[in-house]
Amino acid sequence: MILWTFRHTKPYNPKDVCYGRLDFDVSPTFPEESRLAIEDFLKTGAKPSRLYSSPLLRCLRLSEKVSKATGLAIEKVDALQEINFGTWEGQKLTAVPRDEMAGWMHDLRGFRFPQGENFYDVDKRVGEFLDTLPDNGEFLWVTHAGVIAALQHFACGLPDSDFVEGKFSYTMVNRFEFNRNANGHYRGTFTKIHDGIQMPPLKTG
Questions:
Q1: Domain range list for the chain
Q2: Cα–Cα distance for residue pair 113/15, rounded to 1 Å
Q3: Class level of CATH domain 2-198
Q4: Interval 55-86: pLDDT, tens
Q5: What's the burial of 197, exposed, middle or buried (CB within 10 Å: 0-12/13-18/19+)?
């Protein structure tokens, strides 16, 4: 099975707050970001048969462009939403309680954000949706850093010690190639196809 993933373009976040489920629109750089990513994707000769998108606006904007370029209808999937940062949503990271920030720094993927998820929760919901896809298909997801990182961790063997969620560029495009293991779960490899605007470093203190 072949899976292509697009990360959304740079969101409009002028107050530089933590966002996961916050439904930000796209930045003014959207037209150029989306054009370059789609051009590089089309150059690969990819032939996905279905287009799945996170229902959050920053993904749907890009999905609309991808839909026009591929002729595929957009199918919204809740499992492809970004992690829920709970009480951290809408806060500057420098305003998060110090004990909570210390807890996250100690266990980047395992820390459960208050009233939200941890990254293992994302692994679980993404993995469950991934396993529903047919073995011989080719698919495209427009989604978020947390979802793409989940694929790299649970399905491609990236160690938890390599926290890539905060390193991805906006509009990054990846190609995943999967086969089912003895337990019926997809496992495989990935290749980066396109890099976009690099994220700024996290300001945690």
A1: 2-198
A2: 21
A3: alpha beta
A4: 999 999 999 999 999 999 999 999 999 999 99
A5: middle
